[in-house]
Amino acid sequence: MPYPVTPEFNEKMQALERRVLAKAVIDYTDPFLDQSIQVAANEEANASYPAQVADSLAEPFAKIASLDGSCNLDGTYHLAPRNAEEAATHQMGWWGHQLAGIGGAFSTPCPTLTVTHEPRPIHTLKVVGDSKRAEWPVDFRIDLYALDGTLLRAETVTGNTDVAWSATLPAPVLDVAKQVLTITRWSHAGRQAKVLEFFTSIQETYLAGDLVSFNLLEESEVSHASVPIGNISANEVAISLSNKSRKFSIDNDQSPLKGLLKVNRKVRLWIGVETSQGVEWVPLGVFWTLDDWDSPDDKLQATVTARDRLELLRKGTYQSSQVLTNVSLGALAEIVLQDAGLAPSEYHIDTALYSVIVPYAWFQPVSHREALRLIAEAGLAVVYCDRLGVVRMEAFGSVGEEVAMDFASRRDYFRTRTPVRPSQVINEVIVTTQPLRPATSPEEVYRSNQPISIAAGQTVAVTVHYNAPPVIETVASLESPPSGVSIVGAEYYAWGAEVAIHNANGSAQQVTLVINGKPLSVMNKERAVARDEQSIIENAVLRYEFPANHLIQSLTQAQTIADTLLASAKDPRRDIEIDWRGSPALLLGDRIRVKGADYHVTANEIEWAGSLRETTTARRVI
């Protein structure tokens, strides 16, 4: 389905004369990716989450109940988040412990919040209280410090009446490494300090004039891949911004972005048109910057390249895999994505993947992206990010059935190309199963090569890799250990284990660690073969052997893969490339009609430089 837009939007985009707008928003201080940001408080309530004062979320999830005598049993109060996992979706912020006295005054030491980060310029100050409880700091002080502890600026505020207070400094304070908030008086007596936001994030919006141009490539299949299965492609955008003010120049000490032009800055893009209701914007995706910003002295432009979330998944490691029995590929993908830190709202898994059951599923330590690739390959799926930044795992053929756009006349496009790629024809597909069988009885799967030394009174954590992973039903033990030396903890994975050994003695000891378990071995492989005899007669045998994938363990699954691949590749690729005026409403997977034939969109290259142009690649519907 195309992106939902109003009829007026489509009319404006299809008009012979049109004005296409573009917008980019860049978060230069994303607390989830800026690991330099640390938050500490001198006091906290039983439930308190200081890190949330630097996450750009200034509203609590509800009116949170407190034992300060202010709450009524009227159904409007909610319990505070019980732990960090619940707080991830329930904003609360920092709550102090001390109750304000007469007139809302706090006793010394007053509630204090400290945020440290890499040196950066500070242009504005911000303190946000609790809007749901209508409480706020009345008298407070903000101190800005350099890395060496030098006080750079002190801002004292008295008599504040705003829940959300902010101030723009007359001149930026450079190289600030620490910000300290001290609250001396609260809006209500008998209440704790409650701060939802303190650290000032830097987010800038660029429109025409500041945004010079961008080139976006989004695709659900790797370009020119002969096999449309197991593809993972991170969408990429290159952005050019005006640098007339030299704010992107690395040597400009007065720049508000000094020290912030780094990797992993979040970038969001939109295309829009002016309608009778205002500008209607269509998102183009969520991206993160890859490398250094390029701002040469001889040009008035700065450029940067960014990729979507799948690039971030390439950088993380999935290493907590255990052997799961009779698990669906869909459930397995969920485990990988959640291990990478994604919430359920940040991914979509095709229901077809939940019907493919794997008897024994496991992974070596690999990137989250590689784990997803293996799952997609075994499940006849592709993985990509949509325009909202959601990771989508779509089964082959799970695409739109309604025609989203009809290129009926020459007026609708500049030109089309239908490249023939006979070298990518496949008329025989071989898929080999990798069935796993556990050993009938436990055996030794690991033994330390030399004795492990443990100092007096110390605990040593040992990470081991099994000789032949995966292994199930593992048990770690010490061979003839000295008295006082024991295993105090163990985490077992498919590939190895992490074992903690404690020495309670007053002198150093040595031990040998042994782990026993049941290895799983590939046994009784089978081959699924799919052939197209007519194509073989015409072209000779053009064989494709599917790469070994340990998640393909049944002959039924292997045969389904072989048959599907043969159907998609036995004839020359029937792609089409269309150069046209473009519309952001056309999405990956949409069905289009060109000169009476139907295709599914596999790639869009969108160029904007004051005007819009697009190249769409689509695969012929079989």
Describe the fold and architecture.
This protein is mainly β and 622 residues long. Among the domains are: 38-201, Jelly Rolls, CATH 2.60.120; 403-429 and 527-620, no CATH class; 437-522, Deoxyuridine 5'-Triphosphate Nucleotidohydrolase, Chain A. The chain has seven helices and 41 strands. Strand 39 (591-594) and strand 40 form a beta hairpin. Helix 4 (329-339) runs antiparallel to helix 5.
What would a concise description of this structure say?
This protein is mostly beta strands. It is about 10% helix and about 40% strand.
Topology (SSEs and partners):
Elements: H1 7-14, E1 21-27, E2 38-41, E3 63-64, E4 77-78, H2 84-87, E5 94-95, E6 112-128, E7 137-145, E8 151-157, E9 164-186, E10 194-195, E11 203-206, E12 211-219, E13 236-242, E14 266-275, E15 278-289, E16 301-307, H3 309-315, E17 317-318, E18 324-328, H4 329-339, E19 347-349, E20 357-361, E21 366-367, H5 368-378, E22 381-385, E23 391-395, E24 403-407, E25 415-417, E26 428-432, E27 436-438, E28 443-447, E29 452-454, E30 459-465, E31 471-478, E32 485-492, E33 496-503, E34 509-511, E35 513-522, E36 527-531, H6 533-539, E37 543-545, H7 555-569, E38 575-580, E39 591-594, E40 597-608, E41 612-620
Parallel strand pairs: 3-4, 19-23, 24-39, 26-37
Antiparallel strand pairs: 1-11, 1-14, 2-6, 5-10, 6-9, 7-8, 7-9, 12-13, 12-40, 13-16, 14-15, 15-16, 17-21, 18-20, 22-23, 25-38, 26-36, 27-35, 28-35, 29-34, 30-33, 31-35, 32-33, 38-41, 39-40, 40-41
Helix pairs in contact: 4-5
